[in-house]
Amino acid sequence: MDNVVASESKKRRCDEPELQEPPASRDGAGSGDDVNLELISRLPDEILGSIISLLPIKDAARTTLLSSRWRHLWRSAPLNLSVDLYLSVQERKFIPIVSKILATHLGPARRLSLDNICLRHHLYSKFDSWFRSPALDGLEEFEFYGTIMPPRPLPPSALRFAPTLRFASIGGCDFPEINAAPALLLPRLKHLKLWNVTISEAAIHHLLAGCTMLESLQLEELHGFSSVRIVSPTLRSIGVSVSYRISETDLVFEELIIEDAPCLERLVPFGAEGGPRRIRVIAAPKLMVFGYLSSGISRIVLGSIIVKEMVPISLIASMRKVKILVLQSIGPNLDSIVGLLRCFPCMEKLYIQSCPYKDIENVRQYDTLDPMECLELHLKVIVLNTYQGKRPDVNFAKFFVLNAKVLKVMKFGVCVSFNKKWMANERRRLQLDRKASRDARFHFERDSGLCELYYNKHIHDMWMADPFDSSLCKCCRPV
């Protein structure tokens, strides 16, 4: 049913959704569902309101038909309003629905989601009036993504939510300019995502300066500036990706500078381009997860470590806190990887997306007179994707088989057809009977593709110790 609150009937009050009554039980006695409903109805209004707020807006409105006990709960429950195809596929229908919801809802505002909405002229003014509605006072979560080209500005009235927002995801629009005075303050915002947004360098720095409690930041396919500096005492995770240049004069995100981030644990450049072309980390003493790093990043500076096109060229000190490294390797190139191992001597997990290149031999020998701390004491898990079983692949993997002394698991993401006979032959070629770690186990699996490393969806899920470990989340596991 397309109309949730605007449909009216003679048998119902004009401000209630028109929905069918639940069927009565055949014997006239209360069914099991009726008993369950009675038990649920005994819960306090606050709990029932929280439950209702988790439902899609149509289902939440339908609860008014359950019984007299539920009739007024939805109007006082926290508002969770998602304007999407589930609400209505027709623009002429969802506009009056949303307008009436905002005019009649009495409860606090929790979430407003406007996703994939065409910002045509008549809708632009309508959105502005929606954002000014008293029903959205105290809004905590805001999602907005426009789809019209060229992008239109985000209605400035959306910035009035700044004092109460905890989560904001904004994309497909031009971000309004922010004057330095008065400053835009977002004192409760913990999660910010800017996606396919045009924003000036001054505006993005003023925006970030006002986020005094920010914990996660995602900057994805942005235009309008070339460099951004991060200074935050609270940030724990950063995800960044770059956009293709639209024209020769188009400014795109090319440089990320982590100037001072004492709580930062994850820095994840993602996407096929692997993030900005230049990354500089001046102060991030708790950084533990780093990558996806690719050849698209021309220069990485980590304190006194300088890495140019995936090859370390200066190593005065090392990053001992980094435990998880995710990178691309052309070839795969063993010389490049070994150099990076010295940059991160305490690394425990290594993810490698191999880009096959036939001219690399990978015949490097491990110098026991110059041991690497990582191989001797720490490296426990290696995931090698795009494994084809060619000689460079075998020589590359064999280096770790023969030298990683505390290795627990090595997984091969195989991108060619394979069977038991093929795996038995690979085990022989890899010399698994000569493995350096007695406890090491080796698994050949179908390559999961680039998505998990390129477009990681768990960058900001801090409950996952390793956001790249697909075994920790059902949504990443193969069905």
Automatic annotation (TrEMBL):
Region described as Disordered: 1-32
InterPro entries named in the record: F-box-like_dom_sf (IPR036047), F-box_AtFBL13-like (IPR053781), F-box_dom (IPR001810), F-box_dom-containing (IPR055302), FBD (IPR006566), LRR_dom_sf (IPR032675), LRR_FXL15/At3g58940/PEG3-like (IPR055411)
F-box domain segment(s): 37-89
Source taxon at top rank: Eukaryota
Protein name per its UniProtKB record: F-box domain-containing protein
Organism of derivation: Lolium multiflorum (Italian ryegrass)
Lineage, highest ranks first: Eukaryota, Viridiplantae, Streptophyta, Embryophyta, Tracheophyta
